[in-house]
Amino acid sequence: MDVSRRSFISLVVAGPVLRALSGRQLASAATPAASPVGDVVGKITVGYQGWFACTGDGAPINGWWHWSQDWSQAPSPSNNAIKAWPDMREYSKGYQTAYSNLNNGQPATLFSSYDQQTVDTHFLWMQQNGCDTAALQRFNPTGGEGPTRDAMATKVRTAAEGHGRKFYIMYDVSGWTNMQSEIKTDWTNKMSALTSSSAYAKQNGKPVVCIWGFGFNDDNHPFTAAACLDVINWFKGQGCYVIGGVPREWRTGVGGSRAGFLDTYHAFNMISPWMVGAISTAADSDSVYQNINVPDQADCNANGIDYQPCVLPGDVSARQRTHGDFMWRQFYNMVRVGAQGIYISMYDEYNEGNQIAKTAENAGMVPAGSGLWALDEDGTACSSDYYLRLTADGGRMLKQQIALTPTRPTSPT
Q: Which of 392, 412, 394 is nearest to 404 (CA)?
Protein backbone atom coordinates (compact mmCIF):
# COMPACT_ATOMS: atom_id res chain seq x y z
CA MET A 1 0.00 0.00 0.00
CA ASP A 2 1.20 3.56 -0.69
CA VAL A 3 2.73 5.60 2.09
CA SER A 4 0.09 8.29 2.30
CA ARG A 5 0.68 11.94 3.03
CA ARG A 6 -1.77 11.58 5.88
CA SER A 7 0.93 9.66 7.78
CA PHE A 8 3.14 12.74 7.85
CA ILE A 9 2.97 14.11 11.39
CA SER A 10 2.18 17.80 11.76
CA LEU A 11 4.90 19.74 13.50
CA VAL A 12 4.97 23.12 15.16
CA VAL A 13 4.68 26.07 12.83
CA ALA A 14 7.83 28.14 13.13
CA GLY A 15 9.16 31.34 11.60
CA PRO A 16 9.17 35.08 12.19
CA VAL A 17 5.96 37.01 12.37
CA LEU A 18 5.94 39.82 9.81
CA ARG A 19 3.44 42.31 11.13
CA ALA A 20 4.67 45.50 9.50
CA LEU A 21 3.57 44.74 5.96
CA SER A 22 0.56 43.03 4.45
CA GLY A 23 1.05 40.27 1.89
CA ARG A 24 0.05 42.57 -0.94
CA GLN A 25 2.49 45.24 0.22
CA LEU A 26 5.30 42.73 0.40
CA ALA A 27 4.44 41.32 -3.00
CA SER A 28 4.41 44.73 -4.62
CA ALA A 29 7.67 45.72 -2.94
CA ALA A 30 9.54 42.65 -4.18
CA THR A 31 10.63 41.46 -7.59
CA PRO A 32 7.62 40.50 -9.73
CA ALA A 33 6.79 36.81 -9.83
CA ALA A 34 8.50 34.77 -12.49
CA SER A 35 5.69 33.71 -14.80
CA PRO A 36 2.70 35.02 -16.71
CA VAL A 37 -0.68 33.31 -16.63
CA GLY A 38 -0.49 29.77 -18.00
CA ASP A 39 -1.94 26.39 -17.10
CA VAL A 40 -0.88 26.61 -13.42
CA VAL A 41 -0.08 30.31 -12.87
CA GLY A 42 -3.33 32.19 -12.41
CA LYS A 43 -5.25 28.93 -12.23
CA ILE A 44 -6.95 26.53 -9.83
CA THR A 45 -5.21 23.15 -9.74
CA VAL A 46 -6.79 20.17 -7.99
CA GLY A 47 -4.90 17.15 -6.69
CA TYR A 48 -6.42 14.08 -8.33
CA GLN A 49 -5.77 10.67 -6.77
CA GLY A 50 -7.64 8.46 -9.23
CA TRP A 51 -6.71 5.54 -7.00
CA PHE A 52 -9.95 3.75 -6.19
CA ALA A 53 -10.66 0.28 -7.56
CA CYS A 54 -13.18 -2.46 -6.83
CA THR A 55 -13.12 -6.20 -7.24
CA GLY A 56 -14.65 -7.00 -10.60
CA ASP A 57 -13.86 -3.69 -12.33
CA GLY A 58 -11.17 -5.17 -14.59
CA ALA A 59 -8.28 -3.22 -13.04
CA PRO A 60 -4.97 -5.11 -12.92
CA ILE A 61 -4.77 -4.53 -9.18
CA ASN A 62 -7.94 -6.65 -8.75
CA GLY A 63 -9.07 -5.47 -5.34
CA TRP A 64 -10.74 -2.76 -3.31
CA TRP A 65 -7.84 -0.34 -3.83
CA HIS A 66 -7.93 2.39 -1.18
CA TRP A 67 -11.57 1.74 -0.25
CA SER A 68 -10.66 -0.77 2.48
CA GLN A 69 -7.73 -1.66 4.69
CA ASP A 70 -7.63 -5.21 3.35
CA TRP A 71 -8.00 -4.74 -0.39
CA SER A 72 -8.88 -8.41 -0.89
CA GLN A 73 -12.10 -7.92 1.10
CA ALA A 74 -15.06 -5.65 0.42
CA PRO A 75 -15.13 -2.48 2.53
CA SER A 76 -17.24 -2.61 5.67
CA PRO A 77 -17.37 -0.83 9.04
CA SER A 78 -14.56 -3.12 10.23
CA ASN A 79 -12.58 -2.90 6.98
CA ASN A 80 -12.76 0.76 6.16
CA ALA A 81 -10.22 3.21 4.69
CA ILE A 82 -12.37 6.29 4.08
CA LYS A 83 -13.66 9.20 6.16
CA ALA A 84 -16.49 10.33 3.89
CA TRP A 85 -18.96 8.66 1.54
CA PRO A 86 -19.29 9.77 -2.08
CA ASP A 87 -22.55 10.87 -3.64
CA MET A 88 -23.04 7.96 -6.06
CA ARG A 89 -26.01 9.31 -8.02
CA GLU A 90 -24.12 10.31 -11.18
CA TYR A 91 -21.98 7.21 -11.65
CA SER A 92 -23.20 4.71 -14.21
CA LYS A 93 -21.78 1.80 -12.24
CA GLY A 94 -21.37 1.07 -8.55
CA TYR A 95 -19.83 -1.93 -6.80
CA GLN A 96 -21.60 -3.57 -3.88
CA THR A 97 -19.80 -3.26 -0.57
CA ALA A 98 -20.26 -5.14 2.70
CA TYR A 99 -21.81 -2.10 4.39
CA SER A 100 -25.47 -2.05 5.29
CA ASN A 101 -27.75 -0.16 2.92
CA LEU A 102 -27.70 3.61 3.04
CA ASN A 103 -30.04 5.12 5.57
CA ASN A 104 -32.35 6.01 2.66
CA GLY A 105 -32.59 2.33 1.73
CA GLN A 106 -30.36 2.45 -1.34
CA PRO A 107 -27.56 -0.14 -1.68
CA ALA A 108 -24.14 0.91 -0.36
CA THR A 109 -22.10 0.93 -3.55
CA LEU A 110 -18.82 2.65 -4.43
CA PHE A 111 -17.27 3.78 -7.70
CA SER A 112 -14.11 2.54 -9.38
CA SER A 113 -11.64 5.06 -10.78
CA TYR A 114 -10.77 2.39 -13.35
CA ASP A 115 -14.11 2.94 -15.07
CA GLN A 116 -13.68 5.63 -17.71
CA GLN A 117 -17.14 6.97 -16.89
CA THR A 118 -15.96 7.71 -13.35
CA VAL A 119 -13.02 9.78 -14.55
CA ASP A 120 -15.20 11.48 -17.16
CA THR A 121 -17.72 12.38 -14.46
CA HIS A 122 -14.99 13.86 -12.26
CA PHE A 123 -13.61 15.95 -15.12
CA LEU A 124 -17.10 17.09 -16.06
CA TRP A 125 -17.50 18.39 -12.51
CA MET A 126 -14.14 20.13 -12.86
CA GLN A 127 -15.32 21.75 -16.09
CA GLN A 128 -18.58 22.87 -14.49
CA ASN A 129 -16.88 24.32 -11.41
CA GLY A 130 -13.82 26.18 -12.58
CA CYS A 131 -11.16 23.58 -11.78
CA ASP A 132 -8.65 24.41 -14.48
CA THR A 133 -5.98 21.75 -14.05
CA ALA A 134 -5.70 18.32 -12.44
CA ALA A 135 -2.45 17.09 -10.88
CA LEU A 136 -2.55 13.31 -11.31
CA GLN A 137 -0.86 11.68 -8.33
CA ARG A 138 1.75 9.08 -9.27
CA PHE A 139 3.39 7.06 -6.54
CA ASN A 140 6.24 4.57 -7.07
CA PRO A 141 5.04 2.79 -10.24
CA THR A 142 7.59 -0.04 -10.18
CA GLY A 143 5.57 -2.38 -7.92
CA GLY A 144 2.24 -4.15 -8.18
CA GLU A 145 0.27 -0.92 -8.51
CA GLY A 146 2.20 0.18 -11.58
CA PRO A 147 -0.05 -1.28 -14.33
CA THR A 148 -3.17 0.20 -12.77
CA ARG A 149 -1.51 3.60 -12.35
CA ASP A 150 -0.30 3.48 -15.96
CA ALA A 151 -3.86 2.83 -17.10
CA MET A 152 -5.19 5.67 -14.94
CA ALA A 153 -2.83 8.13 -16.63
CA THR A 154 -4.36 7.23 -19.99
CA LYS A 155 -7.91 7.52 -18.63
CA VAL A 156 -7.14 10.96 -17.17
CA ARG A 157 -5.71 12.09 -20.51
CA THR A 158 -8.91 11.02 -22.27
CA ALA A 159 -11.14 12.77 -19.72
CA ALA A 160 -9.09 15.98 -19.75
CA GLU A 161 -9.15 16.16 -23.53
CA GLY A 162 -12.88 15.48 -23.57
CA HIS A 163 -13.76 18.17 -21.03
CA GLY A 164 -11.33 20.95 -21.89
CA ARG A 165 -9.27 20.58 -18.72
CA LYS A 166 -5.49 20.46 -18.32
CA PHE A 167 -3.56 17.81 -16.39
CA TYR A 168 0.00 17.04 -15.37
CA ILE A 169 1.92 14.31 -13.60
CA MET A 170 2.57 14.84 -9.90
CA TYR A 171 5.09 12.33 -8.56
CA ASP A 172 4.71 11.53 -4.87
CA VAL A 173 8.09 10.10 -3.84
CA SER A 174 7.00 8.91 -0.40
CA GLY A 175 8.67 5.59 0.40
CA TRP A 176 10.27 5.34 -3.05
CA THR A 177 13.62 3.72 -2.28
CA ASN A 178 15.26 4.02 -5.70
CA MET A 179 13.56 7.27 -6.59
CA GLN A 180 16.57 9.15 -7.96
CA SER A 181 17.06 6.80 -10.91
CA GLU A 182 13.60 5.28 -11.30
CA ILE A 183 11.70 8.56 -11.55
CA LYS A 184 13.85 9.53 -14.55
CA THR A 185 13.25 6.16 -16.20
CA ASP A 186 9.51 6.39 -15.60
CA TRP A 187 9.33 9.84 -17.17
CA THR A 188 11.49 8.89 -20.14
CA ASN A 189 9.84 5.57 -20.90
CA LYS A 190 6.22 6.29 -20.01
CA MET A 191 4.94 9.60 -18.70
CA SER A 192 6.70 11.97 -21.10
CA ALA A 193 4.54 10.53 -23.90
CA LEU A 194 1.53 12.24 -22.30
CA THR A 195 2.98 15.68 -23.06
CA SER A 196 1.90 15.23 -26.69
CA SER A 197 -1.70 15.63 -25.53
CA SER A 198 -3.37 18.95 -26.17
CA ALA A 199 -4.59 18.70 -22.56
CA TYR A 200 -1.17 18.31 -20.96
CA ALA A 201 -0.48 21.40 -18.83
CA LYS A 202 2.14 23.84 -20.02
CA GLN A 203 3.63 26.77 -18.17
CA ASN A 204 6.00 29.20 -19.86
CA GLY A 205 5.71 26.92 -22.87
CA LYS A 206 7.06 23.93 -20.94
CA PRO A 207 5.30 20.72 -19.82
CA VAL A 208 4.55 20.78 -16.10
CA VAL A 209 5.81 18.13 -13.69
CA CYS A 210 5.41 18.23 -9.91
CA ILE A 211 7.51 16.32 -7.41
CA TRP A 212 5.92 16.01 -3.97
CA GLY A 213 8.03 14.95 -1.01
CA PHE A 214 11.51 16.47 -1.23
CA GLY A 215 12.88 17.74 2.07
CA PHE A 216 10.25 16.31 4.41
CA ASN A 217 11.78 15.49 7.77
CA ASP A 218 10.59 11.92 8.22
CA ASP A 219 11.65 8.37 7.41
CA ASN A 220 9.52 8.18 4.27
CA HIS A 221 11.53 10.95 2.60
CA PRO A 222 15.20 10.19 3.35
CA PHE A 223 16.61 11.73 0.18
CA THR A 224 19.58 14.08 0.43
CA ALA A 225 19.43 17.66 -0.78
CA ALA A 226 21.95 16.78 -3.49
CA ALA A 227 19.90 13.83 -4.77
CA CYS A 228 16.76 15.98 -4.89
CA LEU A 229 18.57 18.80 -6.67
CA ASP A 230 19.85 16.31 -9.22
CA VAL A 231 16.30 15.18 -10.00
CA ILE A 232 14.96 18.74 -10.24
CA ASN A 233 17.74 19.78 -12.60
CA TRP A 234 17.28 16.61 -14.67
CA PHE A 235 13.60 17.41 -15.25
CA LYS A 236 14.47 21.00 -16.08
CA GLY A 237 17.01 19.62 -18.52
CA GLN A 238 14.18 17.69 -20.18
CA GLY A 239 12.51 21.03 -20.82
CA CYS A 240 10.00 20.79 -17.96
CA TYR A 241 8.56 23.42 -15.65
CA VAL A 242 9.02 21.79 -12.24
CA ILE A 243 6.78 22.31 -9.21
CA GLY A 244 7.85 21.27 -5.72
CA GLY A 245 5.36 19.93 -3.21
CA VAL A 246 7.37 20.86 -0.13
CA PRO A 247 7.01 21.08 3.66
CA ARG A 248 5.30 24.19 4.94
CA GLU A 249 8.53 25.17 6.77
CA TRP A 250 10.60 24.88 3.57
CA ARG A 251 11.89 28.43 3.84
CA THR A 252 13.13 28.18 7.44
CA GLY A 253 14.37 24.58 7.38
CA VAL A 254 12.85 23.67 10.74
CA GLY A 255 9.96 21.51 11.96
CA GLY A 256 8.68 19.47 9.04
CA SER A 257 11.56 20.40 6.76
CA ARG A 258 15.06 19.00 6.75
CA ALA A 259 17.79 21.59 7.22
CA GLY A 260 20.07 22.48 4.34
CA PHE A 261 17.47 22.24 1.57
CA LEU A 262 16.91 25.92 0.75
CA ASP A 263 19.06 25.88 -2.38
CA THR A 264 17.23 22.74 -3.49
CA TYR A 265 13.84 24.34 -2.93
CA HIS A 266 14.96 27.46 -4.80
CA ALA A 267 15.71 25.31 -7.86
CA PHE A 268 11.99 24.69 -8.39
CA ASN A 269 10.04 26.86 -10.83
CA MET A 270 7.05 26.84 -8.47
CA ILE A 271 6.75 26.04 -4.78
CA SER A 272 3.61 24.49 -3.27
CA PRO A 273 3.84 23.97 0.51
CA TRP A 274 1.69 21.20 2.02
CA MET A 275 -0.92 22.30 4.55
CA VAL A 276 -3.03 19.22 5.32
CA GLY A 277 -2.66 18.53 9.04
CA ALA A 278 -1.34 22.03 9.71
CA ILE A 279 -4.64 23.89 9.95
CA SER A 280 -8.18 22.99 10.94
CA THR A 281 -9.89 26.36 11.58
CA ALA A 282 -10.18 29.75 9.95
CA ALA A 283 -8.08 31.18 12.79
CA ASP A 284 -5.34 28.67 11.94
CA SER A 285 -5.41 29.91 8.36
CA ASP A 286 -4.98 33.51 9.54
CA SER A 287 -1.99 32.51 11.67
CA VAL A 288 -0.36 30.61 8.82
CA TYR A 289 -1.07 33.52 6.48
CA GLN A 290 0.84 35.90 8.74
CA ASN A 291 3.66 33.59 9.84
CA ILE A 292 4.19 31.51 6.69
CA ASN A 293 2.37 32.67 3.57
CA VAL A 294 3.41 36.33 3.68
CA PRO A 295 7.16 35.64 4.05
CA ASP A 296 6.89 32.66 1.65
CA GLN A 297 5.46 34.89 -1.06
CA ALA A 298 8.14 37.51 -0.47
CA ASP A 299 10.89 34.87 -0.72
CA CYS A 300 9.43 33.44 -3.91
CA ASN A 301 9.11 36.88 -5.46
CA ALA A 302 12.70 37.72 -4.54
CA ASN A 303 13.93 34.51 -6.16
CA GLY A 304 11.80 34.50 -9.29
CA ILE A 305 9.72 31.50 -8.17
CA ASP A 306 5.96 31.10 -8.55
CA TYR A 307 3.96 30.40 -5.38
CA GLN A 308 1.09 27.89 -5.31
CA PRO A 309 -0.18 27.47 -1.73
CA CYS A 310 -2.69 24.80 -0.69
CA VAL A 311 -6.35 25.33 0.09
CA LEU A 312 -8.23 22.46 1.71
CA PRO A 313 -11.94 22.02 2.45
CA GLY A 314 -11.30 20.30 5.80
CA ASP A 315 -11.73 16.78 7.10
CA VAL A 316 -15.42 15.84 7.17
CA SER A 317 -14.83 13.23 9.87
CA ALA A 318 -13.12 15.79 12.12
CA ARG A 319 -15.98 18.25 11.47
CA GLN A 320 -13.61 20.99 10.33
CA ARG A 321 -15.55 22.40 7.41
CA THR A 322 -18.00 24.81 9.11
CA HIS A 323 -20.16 24.76 5.95
CA GLY A 324 -17.44 26.37 3.84
CA ASP A 325 -16.16 29.10 6.17
CA PHE A 326 -12.87 27.25 6.77
CA MET A 327 -12.14 26.81 3.06
CA TRP A 328 -13.23 30.30 2.08
CA ARG A 329 -10.95 31.91 4.66
CA GLN A 330 -8.03 30.13 3.00
CA PHE A 331 -9.08 31.34 -0.45
CA TYR A 332 -9.28 34.87 0.93
CA ASN A 333 -5.85 34.64 2.54
CA MET A 334 -4.13 33.10 -0.47
CA VAL A 335 -5.54 35.66 -2.89
CA ARG A 336 -4.66 38.60 -0.65
CA VAL A 337 -1.11 37.30 -0.19
CA GLY A 338 -0.66 37.51 -3.97
CA ALA A 339 -0.29 33.79 -4.77
CA GLN A 340 0.41 32.94 -8.40
CA GLY A 341 -1.88 29.88 -8.29
CA ILE A 342 -3.84 27.77 -5.83
CA TYR A 343 -3.62 24.02 -5.27
CA ILE A 344 -6.71 22.28 -3.85
CA SER A 345 -5.87 19.44 -1.45
CA MET A 346 -7.64 17.34 -2.74
CA TYR A 347 -10.25 16.56 -5.37
CA ASP A 348 -11.15 12.93 -4.60
CA GLU A 349 -9.37 12.22 -1.30
CA TYR A 350 -12.18 10.37 0.48
CA ASN A 351 -9.54 8.64 2.61
CA GLU A 352 -8.57 11.83 4.41
CA GLY A 353 -12.06 13.28 4.15
CA ASN A 354 -10.57 16.31 2.37
CA GLN A 355 -12.33 15.84 -0.98
CA ILE A 356 -14.20 18.52 -2.88
CA ALA A 357 -15.84 15.96 -5.21
CA LYS A 358 -19.52 15.32 -4.59
CA THR A 359 -20.12 13.87 -1.14
CA ALA A 360 -23.09 12.57 0.83
CA GLU A 361 -25.31 15.51 1.74
CA ASN A 362 -27.03 14.07 4.77
CA ALA A 363 -27.35 10.96 6.94
CA GLY A 364 -29.73 9.39 4.43
CA MET A 365 -26.86 9.11 1.94
CA VAL A 366 -24.38 7.23 4.17
CA PRO A 367 -24.51 3.53 5.11
CA ALA A 368 -26.48 2.70 8.24
CA GLY A 369 -24.18 2.08 11.18
CA SER A 370 -21.09 3.31 9.34
CA GLY A 371 -20.35 6.19 11.71
CA LEU A 372 -19.55 8.45 8.74
CA TRP A 373 -20.62 12.09 8.77
CA ALA A 374 -22.27 13.82 5.83
CA LEU A 375 -21.75 17.42 4.71
CA ASP A 376 -24.54 18.66 6.99
CA GLU A 377 -22.71 17.44 10.10
CA ASP A 378 -22.77 20.91 11.72
CA GLY A 379 -26.52 21.29 11.21
CA THR A 380 -26.28 23.39 8.05
CA ALA A 381 -27.65 21.73 4.92
CA CYS A 382 -25.04 21.47 2.15
CA SER A 383 -25.61 20.18 -1.37
CA SER A 384 -23.22 17.44 -2.43
CA ASP A 385 -21.51 19.79 -4.91
CA TYR A 386 -21.06 22.64 -2.46
CA TYR A 387 -17.27 22.46 -2.22
CA LEU A 388 -17.01 22.32 -6.00
CA ARG A 389 -19.12 25.47 -6.20
CA LEU A 390 -17.03 27.12 -3.50
CA THR A 391 -13.90 26.24 -5.47
CA ALA A 392 -15.41 27.90 -8.53
CA ASP A 393 -15.89 31.12 -6.56
CA GLY A 394 -12.36 30.89 -5.17
CA GLY A 395 -11.08 30.63 -8.72
CA ARG A 396 -13.06 33.69 -9.75
CA MET A 397 -11.57 35.63 -6.87
CA LEU A 398 -8.05 34.49 -7.79
CA LYS A 399 -8.64 35.66 -11.37
CA GLN A 400 -10.11 38.99 -10.16
CA GLN A 401 -13.46 38.18 -11.72
CA ILE A 402 -15.04 38.94 -8.34
CA ALA A 403 -13.71 41.25 -5.66
CA LEU A 404 -11.49 40.07 -2.82
CA THR A 405 -13.88 39.31 0.03
CA PRO A 406 -13.63 37.51 3.38
CA THR A 407 -17.31 36.53 3.08
CA ARG A 408 -18.02 33.42 1.03
CA PRO A 409 -20.37 34.33 -1.80
CA THR A 410 -21.78 30.83 -2.29
CA SER A 411 -24.67 29.43 -0.28
CA PRO A 412 -24.33 25.81 0.91
CA THR A 413 -27.59 24.89 -0.87
A: 394
